[in-house]
Amino acid sequence: MVDLIEITGGYEKDPDVEKLDLSNPAHVKLALLSQGMRFHESALLPVGSKVKEKIRSYNSSDFTKIVTVPQELILGDDIVVGTHWRDESPWEIAAEDEGFALNYDGKRITGVGFHDRPEYYDREVVKGIPAKRIGVTLGMGAVSFFMRETCTYWEGAQPCKFCSLKATQNRYGETEQYKNSDMVRALLSTIQETGDHLHHIQFSGGSIWNHDDEFREYIEAVKAASDTLGRRIDGNLITMPPRDLSLIDEAYAAGMNHISFNLEVWDPALFKEVCPGKDESYGRDNMIAALEYAAGVFKNGTYTTFVGGLEPLESMFEGWDYLAARGVAPAFNVFHPTPGSIYQGKKAPGVGYLIEAAGKLQDVYQSHDFEGLLCKCCNRNALDNEAKEGYFK
Ligand code: SF4
């Protein structure tokens, strides 16, 4: 089992960067997702006071010993990209006269910004527990509850190979191991008092072997959120599907508008290789059947994430077309190596791969009228919103 934090890195010049239009913020995002970035110390000064710091609720993709880094970066048009620190990246963020600049190989490309630190982070919402240990704001206003910081697949030595949940918790321990619906209620009430941004709510967490029990816990959390806010919940419920598919109807009835069961890759043999735990506990074909069922309940609100870079484009595109025809939107997250994952030594996909994938994604989203998950000011590691808005063609 891999649980070491090994700081690696490496950068080879990618000639496909020259194909990008760096005046297009979605193209810059694509490059940063491929090549990572590093921060000059001048850009780190406000992090943790004025600027929102990264809180690692489940993964850390930073190959650095520096702990306090921004959660994300704001590019043009409010497009946001997650921080993925690589010491040898050609992209550097540094302070300039007014604000911050993003430089590529020492040349200024664009001004960038950071999201303010939410006021609720330091409020005590449950006795002795600050809010930031329960919920974390992603991007401008997507509040994420990672309900369980353990996963049955790690316990059984069958984690998804890109996942660094265990190593991240061992190293940082920045969030509570378990959250419950009372904590969800308390935190959302606090955000209502502080007035911090709250566009979306995301529920996710490690799995347990009994997927019906796992799913029921999410239903309780969704109910807590919708009761507290007095409305249905836009965002994402990311989980393994239940065996009893009627629970999917209950999740919708509880107030959730979007749901994801993540296949990660399409090819059946690769699924077994990348996600051995999911393969054994539920199985790829059953997951696809559950997605099709969900698409009949969460109409235009059912997603499955693909980890871009783990399989050839042809196979991934076959999956996108198959699922899209059945009402399931492919969400496209870009693979980033994370210290402590089995794939920590793999590289993120090159720019050429991402340009092709983003173009295809745009076709799929526009022809099926899918909405991107969250929004472009909240969704950090995916290109769905930018594809929907037509940034890639
Ligand atoms: S289901 Fe996979 S990605 Fe999610 S926490 Fe477990 S091992 Fe990690």
UniProtKB/TrEMBL annotation:
Record-linked CDD domains: Radical_SAM
InterPro entries attached to this UniProt entry: Aldolase_TIM, rSAM_sf
Name listed for the protein in its UniProt record: Radical SAM protein
Naturally occurring in which organism (per UniProt): Candidatus Dojkabacteria bacterium
